[in-house]
Amino acid sequence: MRALVLTAGLGTRLQPLTLARAKAAAPVDGDPLARRTIRWLVSHGIRDLVLNLHHRPESIAAAVGDGSDLGARVRYSWESPVLGSAGGPRHALPLLLDPASPRGDGVETFVLVNGDTLTDVDLPSMIRRHREAGAKVTMALIPNPRPDKYGGVLLDERHAVTAFTRRGAPGPSFHFIGPQVVDADIFAGLPDGVPAESVLELYPQLMRDRPGSVIGFVGDWQFQDIGTPADLLETSLALAAADGRADRPRQGRGAQIDPSARVTRSVLWDDVTVGAGAEIEECVIADGVTVPAGARHRRCALVGGPDGLIVAPL
């Protein structure tokens, strides 16, 4: 079993932090998102991985490398332009298919994972369900916790997906949290190098042509969406608290804090310097930023820009 981790996105909601790194390379409690995702995949025995790249690709490659230190084999699929949630998998198929497989037509099924969410979905059970149901796409779902914030997925009594709804739609629904098990042939008919979306385009067409081929795998899975700088801070604080380090997320390499400065409930990336007497509270500070002596920031993202320091409220 192989997996494709979708890490090519522009990270628009995470700006301005994504001026410094791609979203998947953003540290959450000291560890880049992509590395956390890879560890989770490896824990379920999935070690042959592909990551797709577009925005700030060097930051992901620097964080992950060849994956060997994580017990994985990692290769990269380059995209220009960014190809979307269906176009990206189509472009990566040559890396995901195995021409030496006994069937001679490559690995039929692979795992598809978003690179900006953290979850504890039971992947082996999900793969078994996909095969038992004869599905083409199996999507990990939880009861929609915020229909006002998240679009929904509707299921029939057999857990086949019947529709996707926009956020704010009335009535109960399920929320898609990122992991999928997919058959490679659903992407093979798409033109390579052309942007395409799965939930918006490909899957509705598949559901019309082959009813019951897209199904939901429902559970009470944990789900953390690292969509915004505030999400990144809150998740880092939650992970630190769960590890017995309440309010003290791990700092990045080379962080230097003057003894007279006060840094509380904040995330510092690599090579951050906090000057004398500065006060930092509930902030995310990106690589290489120097906080001047005496500066005061609360609930901000701080990133070095071409014209100086960028300070944006969380």
Question: What labels would you give this structure?
Answer:
single chain; 314 residues; alpha/beta; Spore Coat Polysaccharide Biosynthesis Protein SpsA, Chain A; 2 domains; seven-stranded mixed sheet; four-stranded mixed sheet; 23 strands
Would you summarize the structure shown here?
The protein is of the alpha/beta class and 314 residues long. The protein is 23% helix and 30% strand. The chain contains seven helices and 23 strands.
Describe this structure in words.
The strands form seven sheets. The protein has a seven-stranded mixed β-sheet. A four-stranded mixed β-sheet has the order 16-19-22-23. It has two domains: 2-225, Alpha-Beta Complex (Spore Coat Polysaccharide Biosynthesis Protein SpsA, Chain A); 251-313, no CATH class. It is 23% helix and 30% strand. Residues 103-107 have low confidence and may be disordered. With 314 residues, it is α/β, with parallel strands linked by helices. A hairpin with a 5-residue loop joins β9 and β10 (161-165).
Superfamily (CATH H level) name of the largest domain:
Spore Coat Polysaccharide Biosynthesis Protein SpsA, Chain A
Secondary structure class reads alpha/beta
Shape: globular
User: How would a crystallographer describe the biggest sheet?
Assistant: 7 strands, mixed
| CATH top level label of the largest domain | Alpha Beta
The number of distinct helices, counting runs of at least 4 residues, comes to 7
How many discrete structural domains? 2
What is the rounded distance between the termini?
Answer: 39 Å
CATH architecture of the largest domain: Alpha-Beta Complex
Kindly state the number of beta strands.
Answer: 23
Order of helices and strands: EEEHEHEHEEHEEEEHHEEHEEEEEEEEEE
Find the CATH topology of the largest domain.
Answer: Spore Coat Polysaccharide Biosynthesis Protein SpsA, Chain A
Radius of gyration: 21 Å
Strand content: 25-35%
How do the strands of the widest beta sheet line up side by side? 5-4-1-6-11-8-12
Which spans of ≥5 residues are poorly predicted at pLDDT below 50? Answer: 103-107
Provide mean pLDDT, rounded. Answer: 94
How much helical structure, as a percent, in the residues? Answer: 10-25%
